Amino acid sequence: MSLLLAPRAETPAGPKRSPQQQRILAAAMACFARDGFHGASMQKICAEAGMSAGTLYRHFPSKEAIIAAIVEDERAERLKVFDEVHKAPTILGGLMHCLRLLLEEQALPTATLGPEIMAEAIRNASLRAAVEPCEAETRGHLMAALEEAVARGEIDPAIPLDQVLVLLQILGDGIILNHQLHPEWNITERLPELHRLVVRMLAPAPKAV
């Protein structure tokens, strides 16, 4: 999916959630972060939200539905991130800046919950199906950013962009995971060097003299 030649749509507003739904989602994120996906039972989420099981199930029938709602609520914020990428002096620099924001400011809750969600999605087809539409949209925006980087001369047009997309996603997910697993690595301090390596790896080949 390419958005390069089409006007960018306005950032959509997130779904309108009732106060009870917002309370449930906030409680679920706290439980997932503290106890993990499996450890965070619906009963624990009820207790964290201070409401009955009947009320919770009336709004969200499963933990998978809760995760899908959390991811969907972040859609507008994810689109803002890519808007900042397009406004940056360089696309690759914009992507690295947004990665820094995710690590330092935890701009999106799923940046923290991401490793937990990914691990569960490997074995939970229902969860994977619930979050895949938003993941697919994100990949589409990332591909559009990479196409713009090619147009700006940042990426060698001979490199298949589908491979670049996969490699950058692997790098990003690995960085987010290890930022939590190994805080002593000070990954945010290493981002400038990582940026230089990625730029060097993807840069167009020098023209023959």
From TrEMBL:
Q: Which domain of life is it from?
A: Bacteria
Q: Which SUPFAM superfamilies match?
A: Homeodomain-like, Tetracyclin repressor-like, C-terminal domain
Give an example GO molecular function: DNA-binding transcription factor activity
Which parts of this chain does the entry mark as a DNA-binding region? 41-60
Q: Which residues form the HTH tetR-type domain?
A: 18-78
Record keywords, A-Z: DNA-binding, Transcription, Transcription regulation
- InterPro entries found in the cross-reference section: Homeodomain-like_sf (IPR009057), HTH-type_TetR-like_transc_reg (IPR050109), HTH_TetR (IPR001647), Tet_transcr_reg_TetR-rel_C_sf (IPR036271), TetR_C (IPR011075)
Family matches, as PROSITE patterns: HTH_TETR_2
Q: Does the keyword DNA-binding apply?
A: yes
**One Pfam family in the UniProt entry:** TetR_C_11
Which protein, by its recorded name, is this?
TetR/AcrR family transcriptional regulator
The organism that produces this protein has a lineage beginning with: Bacteria, Pseudomonadati, Pseudomonadota, Alphaproteobacteria, Hyphomicrobiales
